[in-house]
Amino acid sequence: MPLPSLLCFVFAAGIAIALAGRSEIRVSPRPVLLTSSASALLLYASLLVVPVGVYFYVLHGDWFLLYMVDVQRVPSALAMIGFILLVGVGLLGFASAAALARAQRDAISGALFAVTMVASAGVALALRERLSVVGTHAQFTRGFGLTEFSAGPLQPSAWLMGSILVLGLLGTVARVLWGRGRG
Fold first, then answer.
1. How many other C-beta atoms lie within 10 A of the C-beta of residue 177?
2. Is the dihedral of CA 2, 65, 13, 108 positive or negative?
3. How many domains does the chain have?
4. Phi, psi of 134, deg, nearest 5
5. What is the pLDDT of residues 77-136, one digit of tens each?
6. For the chain, is the Cβ count within 10 Å smaller at the N or the C terminus?
7. Taking the model in full, what pTM does it have?
């Protein structure tokens, strides 16, 4: 999963969790980022999304960054800030959907969720030329030594990590809904 797809996905995850916790969000006088639904998103993003991003960054960093930047030149502190911002993108999606939930505009949140999920997959389709090969930044820019995405270990990893993210999101949404039903 390349970085732009991961950004779209975590934004959509924030929307989905806010939609699942909308009844709590509507009645709670607290700021939306202090609700239990926001805590669920924070845990999901910190325990699943960030480790998946770190996995791709460490093992296939140039591919993860679409060969735009040589990963070896990125300072580790900047990468760490980037992963913290990844959680922030999820919180931004949550806050957007929570504001819409408080305004009784759930249909808009649902549409925004659908658009961001399609965008997550659409990035991979739009950039399939770059993503169809795996190698380093130097190999990509100079056109040598690249392997096909389907021939190497990246394809099964991408499917596995994507499945983990989706199943984790479904579990988190189910937990927020279950907590809402109990409350």
1. 16
2. negative
3. 1
4. -125, 135
5. 999 999 999 999 999 999 999 999 999 999 999 999 999 999 999 998 999 989 999 999
6. C
7. 0.93
